[in-house]
Write a structure and sequence with these properties.
Blueprint (H helix, E strand, L loop, with lengths): L1 H19 L7 E4 L2 E12 L5 E11 L5 E2 H4 L1 E6 L2 E2 L1 E2 L19 E2 L4 E9 L7 E6 L6 E6 L7
Antiparallel strand pairs: 1-2, 2-3, 3-9, 4-8, 5-6, 5-10, 7-9, 10-11
């Protein structure tokens, strides 16, 4: 009987530990005092006419100092085993402004800003994974975008 109770207790502990390991919100990325919420993605053409993903995030600075998205959350964008190449996407045909310009904009403590990441795709079916970390790489988080769910 004692063995049976011990086995039940171990099973309950394993289940409770397993449930703690997952992310509550797959759209939320947290790195230290900073967070980004995934809003949307779309496939557009870049200046060369190549298929490009535009990932839109809502960045919040929860630190005590002004900080830009670019300097608070280091990231790579991958498709399969390949790191994707950054590509500019212009805001309009008659402008040199790019969709991702505000990633360098300082955000005051407690404030938020919509940011966009623009990367040339290798194909239109393999999921895109955005990996985030802090400067030293000790804190990591990621999000994955299913391209098949996006309309071109």
């Amino acid at each position: 009987m004692k063995k049976f109770v011990a086995i039940i207790m171990v099973a309950v502990l394993c289940i409770s530990f397993a449930s703690c390991g997952g992310k509550d919100d797959p759209n939320l990325v947290k790195i230290g005092d900073y967070q980004a919420v995934y809003k949307s993605s779309e496939i557009v053409k870049d200046y060369d006419g190549d298929d490009t993903i535009v990932v839109t995030l809502y960045y919040t600075n929860n630190s005590k100092e002004e900080e830009s998205f670019e300097w608070s959350m280091f990231y790579t964008v991958n498709q399969g085993d390949a790191e994707l190449e950054y590509t500019p996407v212009f805001a309009s045909e008659d402008s040199y402004d790019t969709l991702d310009e505000n990633i360098r904009e300082d955000v005051a403590p407690g404030e938020s800003l919509e940011v966009k990441l623009t990367y040339k795709l290798n194909d239109l079916t393999t999921p895109v994974k955005v990996n985030f970390s802090d400067l030293l790489g000790t804190q990591k988080d990621s999000l994955t975008v299913d391209l098949t769910a996006l309309s071109k």
